[in-house]
Structures are given as C-alpha cells and as structure tokens.
C-alpha cells in the first residue's frame, strides 16, 4: 500500500499545535515525531511526519492539512509542508533512541516503552504516548506548568486540572501525591488523559471527566476550536486547594470568577491557581482579571515568551 507523507520541521512550541490542529483529520498511528540529534543552524528541533493512505480522497485531505497548518509556517513556528509518496510508513521500531526530556528538578518525560533508569531517588517519570491532544511535555507552556506544580503541589491537596489535554499535568500532580479531577471539554483529550493515567498507574488518584468549570462550557474548545455542544458544567464551590489551567488567555479571563469560587482556603492550603498557556503579550490582562476577583500573585515562571503565573486567594 502506498502512502502520502507530509513532513515539516517545527519548534518546540509548534509540536502540540500541529497535533491539535490535525486531530480531526488524521489518526494518531499515522503521526511520527522525531527529534534532531543536534540543533541545526535553523531554529527547528523536531520533524513531524503525517501519513495518509494514497487513494481518491488523499488530495482533498492533503489540501485540508496544508490549510490547517499554514498559519504555523507564516508565523515562523514551522517550515512549509513537503509531500512525497512512499511505499510504506515507518513503524515505531524504526525510531531509535526515543528522547528523554528533563523538566524542573524532578520530572522526566518518556515514551511508554523507553528503557530508562532513574538518576535520583526523588525523580518522577511521566510516560506519555504520542497523542493528538495538547500537552506533550515539549511545549514551553507545559514545561512552565510542570515547574510550578513541582513547587506548589502537596500530597494532601485536592486539585483540578482544567483542560487536561494529554494528561501530563494530571499524572504529574498525582505522582506528587495529590488527588486530581482531570477535566476537558474535548473527547480526544479525555481519552488521552485516561490513557496517560492508566499508563502511569495513578488511576486511584485521578478522576477523568468530560466537562467544564462554570461558564467554560459556553466558551468553546480550550484550544480555540469550534464550540463544543453538550459539555457538562461543573459548578464547584470551595472544593479545590489548587487549580491548574494550561489554556488560552481569553479562557482564564472569562473564568476568573469561577476560579475564585471553586477554590477553598484552609489552614493547610491558601487556595492556589496556576494559569498557563499564554505569552507575555497577554500576561497583564490575565493578571488584572484575577486581581479584580480577589487573587494576589505569588509566583511566576517564564520560558521564552511563555508564562505561568501562580495566584492565591487573598486572606
């Protein structure tokens, strides 16, 4: 059987965007992501190859994918797509030495079958399949979110992961000892989170649910896609010790009141909110919206232009 191979080089930032944008067009088994062994002279760090069966429908599907991904090329996050016809697509066995990504002081992100021996007693491994949901551990927004979680999560916490995507943050929170409600309004993300939970053996600590917090069900897809119908709404009040949300800035601003209502303050925990998924261009707008409803800033992490903020409820 012949295949059409679409390939493009990307930055770290673009990997999750590519997967999210093509989620409705291609199967996960037809996506291959490989990392450059060394940084080349350009800014590219990954090559993504997408495979489509070569048939009467392939031309229309190729055009659709090119249109979906062209904004990444225009904004300098990826190269133009190259297409070629191949007799077979590579298998997982063809990809040697899967990458090991270290994040913060303790997290190590691995593929499911990567052979790895921990380097320290307190190291935390996060094993993830390639998914078509946001949160591979390669995007700067995910990295700064993990750095914040490492700093603030305590074992006794009840945590909400809003917009759970691939499930990487939920797994990290559980492995830090807390209990998690993983919430997403996208079916692909819900399935990906559930897979990650089982793969990492944290199903006793993580509950995965399709839904949204408060008015979030009226705001469409977390990643800016079309409106999603029939998404259950969770009206949480004084329930969570910490909320982490790696979603778009406009979502944080719209959900500010819901964040405030969903958090609780106790003697052990002050009620913490970690917001990520936006750049410095939107930092002031997010911070202003949260301050207006009763939060105060207590922490910040930056990677390139991407930001994660930690706020707590004012006493």
TrEMBL record:
Gene Ontology process terms (BP): methylation
Record-level Gene Ontology MF annotations: protein methyltransferase activity
GO cellular component: ribosome
SUPFAM superfamilies: S-adenosyl-L-methionine-dependent methyltransferases
InterPro entries associated with the record: Ribosomal_L11_MeTrfase_PrmA, SAM-dependent_MTases_sf
Source domain of life: Bacteria
Identification of the protein by name: 50S ribosomal protein L11 methyltransferase
Keyword Ribonucleoprotein: yes
UniProt source species: Komarekiella delphini-convector SJRDD-AB1
Alphabetical UniProt keywords: Methyltransferase, Ribonucleoprotein, Ribosomal protein, Transferase
Pfam families per record: PrmA
